[in-house]
Write a structure and sequence with these properties.
- The protein has one helix spanning about 70, and strands spanning about 5-10, 15, 30, 45, 50-55, 60, 75, 80, 80-85, 85-90, 110, 120, 130-135, 140-145, 145-150, 155-160, 170-175, 185-190, 195-200, 210, 215-220.
- With about 220 residues, the protein is mostly beta strands.
- Strands 15, 16, 18, 19 and 20 form a 5-stranded antiparallel β-sheet that branches. A 4-stranded mixed β-sheet has the order 3-4-5-6, with no helix packed on it.
- The longest helix has 4 residues, at about 70.
């Protein structure tokens, strides 16, 4: 209707919602108890909880929409949302059909074909745990996942930001060296909290390497 006047259905026709005697079947009452001697189509708003009721001729019918049917999805025992009283609460997804069963700790989901949702559990390629680049004086150009300190000439102690539960990691270290410089890098002292890199310079002719400060890059795989 174009007049934008609120109306209510009385069972056979739409009536204007008003509190005048001209339309007694559409009186809206705001009170804590149900109105006495109601007429069909009469509205009562419960002041205790703001629920809206309509008299259907024999009883008060709550006109509020029950949202539980819209907020709860039950399929293959998977509940996505539940409705409790007047507030919606989220429930964890249980056995969703789009995830494959099985899988072991640390495995990841990997696409197996171009089809939607076609995934399987796979052992991941060894990920990068930490990485960065360090200057000869021990100053970090940038580091991610670890910090560094130069304990003496050519000796760099790396400490992980988060202590690991094991020492099962690999370290790739590359010196920033010009051709003919002949640096050697040694990774040692593996612990849950980090490792040490020692840089030595020799001539590959049997002479003992001399610990020397050297800029280098480091990648930790775990």
């Amino acid at each position: 209707m174009a007049d934008r006047i609120a109306r209510i259905w009385n069972g056979s026709s739409w009536e204007v919602i008003t509190s005048t005697a001209a339309a007694p079947t559409a009186v809206a009452n705001y009170q804590s108890s149900a109105p006495s001697n109601p007429v069909t189509g009469q509205i009562w708003i419960d002041s205790d909880n703001d629920s809206i009721y309509v008299w259907d001729g024999s009883s008060w019918i709550e006109s509020s929409v029950d949202l539980s049917a819209y907020l709860t999805q039950s399929s293959a025992s998977a509940t996505y949302l539940t409705q409790s009283s007047a507030s919606a609460t989220y429930a964890p997804i249980s056995s969703p059909s789009f995830l494959p069963a099985g899988g072991s700790a640390s495995e990841v989901l990997t696409k197996t074909t171009s089809s939607d949702y076609d995934v399987s559990w796979q052992t991941p390629i060894m990920p990068i745990y930490a990485h960065g680049r360090t200057l000869a004086n021990g100053t970090a150009v940038y580091l991610s996942g670890m910090s560094v300190s130069r304990s003496s000439a050519g000796v760099y102690v790396y400490t992980f930001d988060v202590t690991r539960s094991d020492t099962n990691f690999s370290v790739l270290a590359t010196p920033a060296a010009a051709p003919g410089t002949d640096p050697n890098m040694f990774v040692h002292t593996f612990t849950n909290s980090g490792f040490t890199i020692t840089v030595g310079v020799g001539d590959n002719s049997g002479n003992t390497d001399v610990s020397t400060d050297f800029a280098h890059s480091v990648v930790v795989l775990a």
